[in-house]
Amino acid sequence: MTTTLAPGARTAPATTRTRAVRAPLRDVATMTRREARRSLRSVDGLITAFALPVLIMSAFVVVFGGAISGGTGGEYIDYVVPGVLIMCLGMNSATAAIGVAQDMTTGTIDRFKTLPIFSLSALWGHVIASVVRNLASAAVVVLVALAYGFRPGADLGDWLGFAGFAVLAVVTFTWICVVFGLVLSVEASMSVSMIFLFVPYLSSGFVPVDTMPEWLHGFAQHQPFTPIIESVRGLLMGAPDASTIVTACAWLVGFLVVSVVVGGILYRRRTAR
Amino acid sequence: MNDPMIAVQGLRKSYGRTAVLRGVDLTVRRGEIFALLGPNGAGKTTTVNILTTLIHPDGGTATIAGADVVRQPAAVRRSIALTGQYASVDEFQTGEENLVMMADLAHLPKRTVRRRAHELLERFDLTGAARRRVGTYSGGMRRRLDLAISLVADPQVLMLDEPTTGLDPASRSQLWDVVRSLAADGTTILLTTQYLEEADRLADTIAVLADGQIAARGTAAELKSLVAGDHVRVSFDDAASVAAARGLGVAGIEDAELDEKALALTFPSAAPVRAIRDVLDRAESRGLAVAGVSVVKPTLDDVFLALTGGRPAPSTTSTDTTTADTTTADRSAEEALR
């Protein structure tokens, strides 16, 4: 019946099972390569990933540090690095919202959806590229912090624990941003980073919660950024607290599952208009 | 072998209370260039989105190469490619990178990916720009790359949603040539357009989509014959001759429309060649000064106006018709409506 063979039909017939695994992996790898190029070639993206974290770190340590220190029981830089790290990972993940919004408006996602590929590969490409970008960014933040006098107490196990926790956090943050990118315009998607810029201030990330006005305590103590930042603090200081880490992971996994499900539904339903 | 490549029956789609498609039927044969012509908002993109599995219809059926778009979307996706209204190419990648990416997504064997990309760059005259970022490309180059990307997987059916919107005339005619050569190689092409000229010049079959339904379909010639027959236009050297010409006794001339500026009479005629011969013979015997005669064929503008009840989109459609033709066209369309 067909005169033109689809390229898939021309390929040497691998067993169905290996193809079922390999094809989606190839799709995700291709999409990740695409996002990596976008990140590396965008001046905005590079500034958000590398210059901004260094500037934020400098502002807290050099500018605010002198005034705040004393209230945190030790060097302020040792207190603030986890907060800065999480804030930067969040803002850097938010770049994905802009990328997804652009792909929606240019019709690129529509085109991907008409291809016989693993359907969420475009979104996973954003997420995996974001993880790589963020780990590089986090490394820069830690190195600059060390240069400013940050003295972590973490051993190798703690560092590995931190790396794993950071990957989970970035995957979750990025999936949340991907969902925003699917529904927002390109302009609106640019403000998604504000979530990660402001909400961490209302946590224990930058100043201890008991120094805040009383009406803020409830929110500050129970909002997800507090256990997330406290987990990082524990790991970097070499004194991880299991229950804090479990609480943080529960928040992250919860947000991740909801975002993947909602993102999957939106991806299938929404078309460029 | 004679099964239609695209078969659509009773397709319906509403958004809220707005019915966008109200029972669309169409059939496209293998290797055919089929144009879906209609004004903005007629439902062209909605139709394409359903046929490319992007949205689900509310009712009706559609199959591509025998596969149902709702029940067998994966099979449909293996035989189609979409070039949307915007050139969906990545500005931050080079032309070559865009093509290699799509070849990877088409699961071409790894060793053939680069070769395929280079073949297409060559074919679309983009080899020189292959390593430049698409952000630096002109509109025409982007469209060519967009089309090249659609062809990576050698699709049986190519859907082009307003492929030449925003292109300059040279790029447009270059794109038309590519589309024709694709169809000659056996690719089935469904294109949507609001440009009458595009449908007229490119398509084997045209369906006019108006208000969510197919208002008419056929070849350009068939559609034109639906609306109005030929007209004869006779121009004279002086006003006295024009006035006298009404009394020549040629069928239709007594009610001919007068173009005072051009000193010309235009009238519908079932046998235009004979009418012209009669006009010339009788004018000569009475000493009337005939300056010129012509048969005016109806244009697709007439069809469009008559069927959609609207104006064609502002476009370059009239560039190869004379002003006189257009005037006649408008008039006969109005007649057809009455």
TrEMBL record, chain A:
It is a multi-pass membrane protein. It is found in: Cell membrane; Membrane. It comes from the Bacteria. PROSITE patterns: ABC_TM2 (PS51012). Residues 44-270 form the ABC transmembrane type-2 domain. Coiled coil: none annotated. Pfam families: ABC2_membrane. Keywords: Antibiotic resistance, Cell membrane, Membrane, Transmembrane, Transmembrane helix, Transport. The keyword Zinc does not apply. The chain crosses the membrane at residues 43-67, 79-101, 122-150, 162-184, 191-209, 245-267. Belongs to the ABC-2 integral membrane protein family. This is Transport permease protein. The lineage of its organism: Bacteria, Bacillati, Actinomycetota, Actinomycetes, Micrococcales.
Automatic annotation (TrEMBL), chain B:
One of its GO terms (molecular function) is ATP binding. SUPFAM superfamilies: P-loop containing nucleoside triphosphate hydrolases. Pfam families: ABC_tran, DrrA1-3_C. SMART domains: AAA. PROSITE patterns: ABC_TRANSPORTER_1, ABC_TRANSPORTER_2. It is found in: Cell membrane. It is a peripheral membrane protein. Keywords: Antibiotic resistance, ATP-binding, Cell membrane, Membrane, Nucleotide-binding, Translocase, Transport. Residues 315-330 have a biased composition (Low complexity). Its main location: membrane. It comes from the Bacteria. Gene3D superfamilies: P-loop containing nucleotide triphosphate hydrolases. Residues 308-338 are annotated as: Disordered. Residues 6-236 form the ABC transporter domain. The keyword Translocase applies. Belongs to the ABC transporter superfamily. Drug exporter-1 (DrugE1) (TC 3.A.1.105) family. NCBIfam families: drrA. This is Daunorubicin resistance protein DrrA family ABC transporter ATP-binding protein. It comes from Isoptericola cucumis.
